[in-house]
Amino acid sequence: MTTFASDTDTLTRDALTVLQPGFTGTTAPDWLLRRLGEGLASVGLFGRNIATPEQLAALTAQLRAERDDVLVAIDEEGGDVTRLEVRTGSSFPGNHALGAVDDVELTREVAHELGRRLAACGVNFNWAPSADVNSNPGNPVIGVRSFGADPDLVARHTAAYVTGLQAAGVAACTKHFPGHGDTAVDSHHALPRIDADPAVLGDRELAPFRAAIAAGTRAVMSAHILVPALDPDRPATLSGRILTDLLRGELGYDGLIVTDGMEMQAIAATYGIERGSVLAVAAGADAICVGGGLADDETVRRLRDALVTAVRSGELPEERLADAAERVRALARWTADAQSSARGGEAGDVGLRAARRALKVTVADGFTPLTEAPYVAAFTPVANIAVGDETPWGVGAELAALLPGTETGSFSGEEAGRAALAAAGSRRVVAVVRDEHRHPWMAAALDTLLASRPDTIVVEMGVPQTPARAPLHIATHGAARVCGRAAAEVIAGG
Predict the structure, then answer these.
(1) What is the mean pLDDT of residues 132-145?
(2) To the nearest whole number, what is the mean pLDDT of the chain?
(3) 386 has pLDDT over 80
(4) Among 138-152, 314-328, 373-387, which is the least confidently predicted range?
(5) What sign has the CA pseudo-torsion 6, 11, 13, 14?
(6) What pLDDT is recorded for position 339?
(7) 343-379: burial string, b at 16+ Cβ within 10 Å, e else
(8) Over the chain, what HEC string results?
């Protein structure tokens, strides 16, 4: 096992152990390796750290050369939120597509193959799945990241995902407790509030977490949301009522509790990351996720010192910090054992098979597949931070592979429809939208297209809420690369 630097005391080691920081670059910087020698036990990876599977494997090997039991975490949900394939789009459909199919064995198989690929690259901890019930269709940050709006459906697929991922030796982190589905605000930007009463929360938000706990999820991620029925004063990440009394006490959960990113504005702009981290650990969190935005040694030092100071001042009980650090080390032991006994081989094209099954196709009489290259008009909303704007989406590239000469343009705003018509010229138009119901300008653009070109094909790659009103309307239930491929096959008859 790792030999710690002799000048690092137990308290400082424990403070480092509960941090899950990020870094920049595709190799580990010297400061990160030094911190691993001093007690840091986890590292979070993002798209900026990943170029190829081979590079990722070399990076995780570099980390393990410094600390052999390091937890290497990643935000790899599949679907719209991918880090492994951040520049190409995911080989796996996301949760909403799997919920649309509603085959729990398929969900388990997809999660297992995703886990197998992570494990092959040396990643042993995945901040997934999202167990949020998408009860508010206007939700700006969950959407297709949720299995759906029905709590029972979300519960059974959350359990299947946890089972599949962990069978590959990768710890699941079910999120965002106690449920981020009924929000109209993105916690990356501000503090959302859910005003449901306790009975609704128990039946709706908590059902998938109960299922995940029963399935043995090794970690749960807290949400930066205010739920007055549970705690009128503190957001969930900082609430002892929610993390300790509810999650540990009432739900009987005994695994690792991880915070969502502490630099998100819901915490950073209200409490600050140092104060927020101390309050989170005091409330029952065991690991502090930071590094999506703040990814440097100074952040690690600030949070370590804040925790040490809080213990020395009596604000944070030393036993609570020690318990949190021990839960991190226990998860590291579990991943070592789980990866050595992981089952099953490569599942091939399970992601594409799932994406094909997830399509909902509405076809008018007389539609025939295209044989000539169309013009793809992508009506592009602003990406939320969880998805990011690096990952390509749409059907243009996949259609171009089947119908060479296909061109794509991206449009937004009040003139989007007219601009798309002008760009398309005489070519058949394929309009690609994402959550049309949340963007009035997008609905107006489609109206403009269909009024002038009633043969326009529509592909909805978000949550399908609006009625089909085209000769061919395809709901993919997500914008992963394989979802685009499945839609392109229908359009081109291939």
Answers:
(1) 84
(2) 93
(3) no
(4) 373-387
(5) positive
(6) 81
(7) eeeebeebbbbbbbbbbeebeeeebeebeebbbbbbb
(8) CCCCCCCCCHHHHHHHHCEECCCCCCCCCHHHHHHHHHCCCEEEECHHHCCCHHHHHHHHHHHHHHCCCCEEEECCCECCECCCCCCCCCCCCCHHHHHHHCCHHHHHHHHHHHHHHHHHCCCCEECCCECCCCCCCCCCCCHHHCCCCCHHHHHHHHHHHHHHHHHCCCEEEEEEECCCCCCCCCCCCCCCECCCCHHHHHHCCCHHHHHHHHCCCCEEEECCCECCCCCCCCCHHHCHHHHHHHHHHHCCCCCEEECCCCCCHHHHCCCCHHHHHHHHHHHCCCEEECCCCCCCHHHHHHHHHHHHHHHHHCCCCHHHHHHHHHHHHHHHHHHHHHHHCCCCCCCCCHHHHHHHHHCEEEECCCCCCCCCCCEEEEECCCCCCCCCCCCCCCCHHHHHHHCCCCEEEEECCCCHHHHHHHHHCCCCEEEEECCHHHCHHHHHHHHHHHHHCCCCEEEECCCCCCCCCCCEEEECCCCCHHHHHHHHHHHHCC
What pLDDT does 390 receive? 73
Which position has the token pair 């029952």?
284
Integer CA distances (angstroms), 126 to 92, 107, 230, 253, in order: 15, 16, 27, 18
Tokens of 171: 């710890």
Name the residues annotated as catalytic: 188, 260
pLDDT at 248 over 80: yes
Residue 193: pLDDT above 80? yes
Q: Does residue 1 have a pLDDT over 70?
A: no
Q: One-letter amino acid identity for 58?
A: A
pLDDT over 70 at 301, yes or no: yes
| Residue whose token pair is 């920049």 | 24
Tokens of 276: 């927020």
Q: Starting from the edge strand earliest in sequence, which strands make up the sheet with 256-258, in order?
A: 42-45, 71-74, 125-126, 171-177, 219-222, 256-258
For the ranges 29-43, 173-187, 384-398, the lowest mean pLDDT is seen at 384-398
Whether 74 and 124 have beta carbons less than 8 Å apart is answered as no
CA 56 to chain centre: 19
CB atoms within 10 A of CB 156: 20
Which of 222-236, 338-352, 415-429 is the least confident region?
Answer: 338-352
